[in-house]
Design brief:
With about 260 residues, the chain is α/β, with parallel strands linked by helices. The chain has a single domain, classed as 3-Layer(aba) Sandwich (Rossmann fold), CATH 3.40.50. About 45% of the residues lie in helices and about 15% in strands. It contains eight helices and seven strands; from the N terminus they run αβαβαβαβαβαβααβ. It has a seven-stranded parallel beta sheet, with helices on both faces. α5 links the parallel β4 and β5. α4 runs parallel beside α5 and α5 runs parallel beside α6. The longest helix has 30 residues. The protein is globular and about 50 Å long. The model has no long low-confidence stretch (mean pLDDT about 90).
């Protein structure tokens, strides 16, 4: 098999959560460019419609399914909608996430539950549902979790996001544990750990600390609109068929010291 064939996703079906904007849309676009048919989900129907139009302009087939992954009881219907439309799912990109900044001693209960429910619980229940109904029966599948460098280390004292860090740390170990369990079904389970990328979630922090973050990044810049494309295509394709339980860091080198 040639290298081009290893990276080709023609005919594959990819479900991307949080796929209407930001990192999710960037990754969805990359998978579509390589031939995958897409299902993208997010809470806001209007943002999904905008993303669908953007992707279809590039000749990418797209199904949109509005939904909130923290409403666990609706996850089977979401998966069912994708399976009813395409008949299969080959790639699951667990990208939907939330954050909340507050000192640990003052962290609101509701904020903690919001972050953990979306970043950990909803991610697990969706992966479980896709695994049971698609990946395990077909004896193949690619699970990709958008974790973070925040899941690999602590924060500076002036960056109090303990729930986000705890959730992303759980995501990193989740892929290790599930990779061990589902390897026998020929299912690869990996994480991408982005550093700082401009997004709706990070904009407030970057306005305050952007210059400092760039100064402490060896490549001297923030992540850009194409910097996750290669990583997600690699982990979604046959090029990574012997890689599982891995956390791929995409941070411009900021974690090197």
């Amino acid at each position: 098999m040639s290298v081009k064939q290893l990276f080709d996703l023609t005919g594959k079906v990819a479900l991307v959560t949080g796929g209407s904007r930001g990192l999710g849309l960037q990754m969805a676009e990359a998978l579509g460019e390589m031939g995958a048919r897409l299902a993208i989900t997010a809470r806001k129907a209007e943002e999904l419609a905008t993303a669908k139009a953007h992707l279809e302009q590039q000749g990418i087939e797209v199904l949109t399914v509005a939904g909130d992954l923290s409403q666990f009881e609706r996850i089977p219907d979401l998966v069912g909608a994708v399976l009813d439309h395409y008949g299969r799912i080959d790639i699951l990109v667990n990208n939907a996430g939330a954050s909340w900044g507050a000192p640990a001693e003052d962290y609101p209960f509701e904020a903690w539950m919001k972050v953990i429910n979306l970043n950990v619980n909803g991610m697990f229940f969706l992966t479980q549902e896709v695994g049971r109904r698609a990946f395990i029966p077909q004896r193949s599948g690619k699970v990709i979790v958008t974790a973070s460098i925040a899941g690999l280390r602590g924060n500076p004292p002036h960056m109090p996001t303990i729930a986000y860090n705890a959730a992303k740390g759980a995501d990193v170990n989740f892929v290790r544990a599930l990779a061990a369990e589902w390897g026998r079904y020929n299912i690869n389970v990996n994480a991408i750990c982005p550093g700082f990328f401009p997004s709706k979630m990070s904009n407030g922090l970057l306005q305050q600390m952007g210059d400092e973050i760039v100064a402490h990044t060896p490549l001297g810049r923030l992540g850009g609109e194409e910097d996750l494309k290669g990583a997600v295509v690699y982990l979604a394709s046959e090029a990574s068929r012997h890689v599982t339980g891995h956390a791929l860091v995409v941070d411009g080198g900021s974690g090197t010291y």
